[in-house]
Amino acid sequence: MRTYLKLLISLSVSCLLFVSAVMADAPPDPGGGPGGGDGPVGGGSPLSGGLIPFFFMSLIYSIRKIKQSLRK
Q: Residues near 25 by Cβ (< 8 Å), separated by ≥ 6?
């Protein structure tokens, strides 16, 4: 029971951190007129600068730890 409580707490904290890190800024003002040659709207919004690899590595690590705890 205690192991499941720790797992639940760690997953909820991970979800909170993940959600707060994924929030991106509003897209920049496109500016210029038609055919101005600017990039696409929101092209500079930082969304996954290392966040996706971190998420998958933490997921793999937590699955490994759960399997180890079930074996014991």
A: 45, 46
Overall residue count recorded for the chain in this entry: 72
Q: Per the domain annotation, does 34 fall within a domain?
A: no
Per-residue pLDDT reduced to its tens digit, 50-60: 777 788 889 99
In a domain, residue 61? The reply is: yes
Question: Is 55 a member of any domain?
Answer: yes
* Number of domains the chain contains: 1
The amino acid sitting at 31 is G
Global pTM reads 0.35
Range of the domain at 72: 1-22+49-72
Which of 65, 64, 72, 62 is closest to 12 using CA atoms?
62
Under 8 Å between Cβ of 19 and 63 = no
